[in-house]
Amino acid sequence: MSAIGSNHSTRSTTDGVYERGEPWFDDGNVILQAESTRFRVYRGALALNSPVFAGSFPRNRGPQVPSSTAVYRLQVQAIDLQHFLKAIFVPGYYQRKLKTDYDATISIIRLSTKYQVEYFRQDIVANLVIAYPSTLAAWDKRSKVEAYPSTVAQRAVDVLRLAREINVRALIPAALYQCCENPLEVILDGIHQPDGGTTRLSPEDEEICILGRERIVEAFRARLFSESQLVSSGPGFLASRHVPCDSARLRWLYKDEVWEMAFGYDWFKPLHTECPILGPGVCPSCQNAFAATFHRTRSFIWENLPGYFGLPEWSILRIELDHILKEK
């Protein structure tokens, strides 16, 4: 295999001007062109990795060598094709980019999906699921687990768009939920990205996000802050019918931060892990009963998360994800 040629030298042929991109192998036997950039690589290696390419190349009918290198024009972006081909042909490139370069990794999975390169697709999806999981336990641990590609846990809008493009619906509920954690004006004006810029949701996802946000908050408050949950006759306190605690619970409700959580316009932290303390005057039994209701509410919100956004239930999404990760 020859050395990779220099990058972005301009060449002219009878069919127009093009840039020489990397990888470019002088002894390569196929040229792929994306936009105005060409890449010279090896047909056999492409066919071995991708059934789409394998089905596109003509089969040799004998030992003869073609007199010229065939050019295949692809309807993809040049930068995506560059990262995809380097992942296939440059040793260590994929592993390095997976850890350090979000955009390159997304280019690789985008074309791996298009051209059915299973290893890259499955590996990247498995890493995306760490940051956008399908279980509450994994969501609670996500801040403590290193997720690849880097910065992916802060790029919910991009992951949401990508999940729809590559048809991995199991990523969508957690990505939408993370978008919902922003104030409403941020959701409408653009969500901040790690590079300092902002990214807008599509009009469809913006509507889904805002409606889902309201459904989640309503469900949280109905299960935790309804009258039946704040007095000792409620189902959350059957094990601790301590009537003297009722007035203390109601005083606690009137605290500013609690009132915001129970009735505020822009509050949205239904999956926060720390149970509120009811305040002085509430016995341990009533506090424990409230904590149990709080944790049941968190689990309820998560298990119903896809439905708040108009998606199938988790069991269906998890089956789809398992199929993607086990494709042969």
From TrEMBL:
<protein>
    <recommendedName>
        <fullName>BTB domain-containing protein</fullName>
    </recommendedName>
</protein>
